[in-house]
Amino acid sequence: MKGAEALLKALEREGVEVIFGHPGGAIMPVYDALYDSPIRHILVRHEQGGIHAATGYARASGRVGVVMATSGPGALNLVTGLADAFMDSTPVVAITGNVPRALIGTDAFQEADVTGVTMPITKHNYLVQEVNDIPRVVREAFHIASTGRPGPVLIDLPKDVQLSEFTGTFQVELDLPGYKPTTKGHPKQIERALDALEKAERPVLMVGGGAQHAHGELLAFAEKTGIPVITTLMGLGAFPGNHPLWLGMPGMHGTVAANRAIHHADLILAIGLRFDDRVTGKVSRFAPHAHTIIHVDIDPAEIGKLVRTHVPIVGDARSVLREMLKGAKPLKLASWWRQLEEWRTRHPLRWKPRPHLQSQEVIRAFAEATGGHAIVTTGVGQHQMFAAQFFPVTRARSFITSGGLGTMGVGLPFAIGAKVARPEELVIDFDGDGSFQMTLQELATVVKYKLDVKVVILNNGYLGMVRQWQDLFHAKRYSEVYLADSNPDFARLAEAYGIKGVRVERKEDLMKGVEAVLNADGPVVAEFKVYHEEGVFPMIPAGGAAEDMILEHPEEREEVEA
Amino acid sequence: MRHVISVLVQDHPRVLNRITSLFARRGFNLESLAVGTTHVPGLSRISLVVSGDDHTLEQVEKQLNRLIEVLKVTDHSEPHVERELVLAKVHVAGVEERLAVKDIQEAFRARVVDVAQKSLILELTGDSKKIDSFIEALRPYGILEVMRTGAVAMSRGERTLKVREKREAV
Ligand SMILES: Cc1ncc(C[n+]2csc(CCOP(=O)(O)OP(=O)(O)O)c2C)c(N)n1
């Protein structure tokens, strides 16, 4: 058996069923071995599409996503996706070919120092020098990627190692003396947290992406205590977005109720989140009345990194919540809830209706037509925020978006990965005309594997989110954000790929368009031409605090109130 | 505040690279770094001198601990021994200078490890402050080259940077 076959055997032993990838010279032995392997391979059109698809697969399934690429240019095309997976703590294993060992370091054809380049954006990486190390490295890579704080791991395999005769064993024991994540929270700290919670008058529970797998425990804990729940962009779906205890999303484009709740809270119980600046705004003005901040996270380095923490609990969200549930009591929060209700009813998420078709109503229409029962992926920009605001996510692992890195172009490949992972689910990608064009070649992947994904492009003819900032903070100097003069006809573009195209331009055709998308038997690319100059509100300007929240565009304020 | 940190690592290729790139990426201020093997095959030990406030130091330790190949991190705030080695090549033009340099050598208990017509190489071990003053004392005589190793450190008494022999099953 050659190293290449040993690699696939080792992957099989990890339960890998599918690899997203793109071949090339330095990984050809593995592709050759793949020919006889039960592992399914999905050929993408660009390695970036491959890694985002692997990420979408991991996010939708909770399993490790696998991507493969050749050396140099192939491997470097993974960089953005690795950084994206790293920032959003997604378990992905990337396998790259490299030039033969003898040529490493000689600037050989298609050589790049991929382990060096990816060091800061992977949880760990390997350059495999010995063929018999393959099973051990694969075992370690999957273990590291999927335990503790999940993250991407890269395995770089020189071509001659792939071709060497494997004489080793697949019976490998994990031996990682420097890697022992703590999963069980400290009982004393848990007790302190519960005591503080019982004394709190205005507590809030903030939940991030690190609690997606703890949704059952979260629901039980919230219902038992009656505590208000806020989910970050990464936490959407970890707690049902239609539950009466839910206040919405915090931060820059969060709800008034969520942001005011944090601002006035006397206790914050934060689980599986890392206090991103898009959530906290100016840290020194974040939660100024919270005399107790309890932070539960599996990564000790996140605790106290940005926000002062009074009760640190290092552990897995699920295990800690289970322990907390044992001692949790119903809290007396009647007057707090009266206040929260007032904010919630006085300032619901809304938009200013216009004669044009609007992104918000398109998303609402899809939410209503599906009953919220879909896996949603997004690009990055205004449409992403509108999707987060107006598509109530009711189930875990059902809202897949780029949170930490904010990577345009993830929408379609995320949807591909999600559909491969959960073929029985309806998968909708809400995308921007800008974001979609960064990876649209993956429509070919959709066609090749008959993946029934619904792409809904909210075409505003602009790099909308940048235009919004130029509007508000750069005196409407719209520098290099106009797309409409050169956008393709997206519906016809889809048809060129053999995919059904739909175009909706007028408000009155909205429902017809939604039905055309949902009733289509197979993939669809639907273009909804939406109002050009929409803004996402509420908004807390970068570096601001909850009190600095703008509820609507400053120039439209009176009209809205009238 | 200046801190001396010891880090026990698996001596895999690139492990140093991981550590230095961590410092660069997170904006930590690394003043010196000294590495060597230990008596345990496969394990190396790194001494780092870092400056920063308590918060920075906490982050330095936590971020180092996140690296898969890092087994242990200790901040030497407790009583510890700290040593640095320096080699200094000084210019000595005549007898008078040679005698003056010899005085400094004796005062610091340094050793002469190379003698040439117009230069001497001196070797000194001590804590970093002592080395600083040694170099200052030599400066008027014309220093040609100085090579310092960076501080190495070890806790006094019973405390060690040992890892458990029996590894937990994962
Ligand atoms: C790869 C990448 N490049 C640039 C940006 C900066 N950026 C953030 S939002 C945005 C505009 C997005 O436009 P579009 O996808 O059309 O969505 P819209 O905001 O119009 O809904 C840009 C350029 C980014 N996030 N990612």
How is this structure best described in words?
The complex is a heterodimer of chains A (about 550) and B (about 170). Chain A has about 550 residues and is of the alpha/beta class. Chain A contains 23 helices and 18 strands. The termini of chain A are far apart. With about 170 residues, chain B is α+β, with helices and mostly antiparallel strands. In chain B, the strands form 2 sheets. In chain B, strands 5, 6, 7, 8 and 9 form a 5-stranded antiparallel sheet that branches. The two termini of chain B are about 40 Å apart. The C terminus of chain B is likely disordered. Chains A and B meet through loops of A and helix 1 and helix 2 of B. Thiamine diphosphate binds next to helix 16, helix 18 and helix 20 of chain A.
Offer a concise description of the structure.
The complex is a heterodimer of chains A (562) and B (170). Chain A is α/β, with parallel strands linked by helices and 562 residues long.
Strand fraction of chain B equals 35-45%
* Category from helices, strands and their pairing of chain A: alpha/beta
Number of strands of chain B: 9
Summarize the amount of helix of chain A as a percent range: 25-40%
Poorly predicted residue ranges of chain A: none
Count of individual beta strands of chain A: 18
Q: What Rg of chain A do the Cα atoms give?
A: 24 Å
- Coarse morphology of chain B: elongated
Mean pLDDT of chain B: 93
Gyration radius of chain B (Cα, Å) is 19 Å
Q: H/E series of chain B, N to C?
A: EHEEHEEHEEHEE
Oligomer class: heterodimer
Biggest sheet details of chain A: 6 strands, parallel
| Strand order across the largest sheet of chain A | 2-1-3-4-6-5
Question: Average pLDDT value of chain A?
Answer: 97
As a percent range, the share of helical residues of chain B equals 25-40%
Instruction: Specify the biggest β-sheet of chain B.
Output: 5 strands, antiparallel
Structural class by SSE content of chain B: alpha+beta
Query: What amount of the residues of chain A lies in strands?
Result: 15-25%
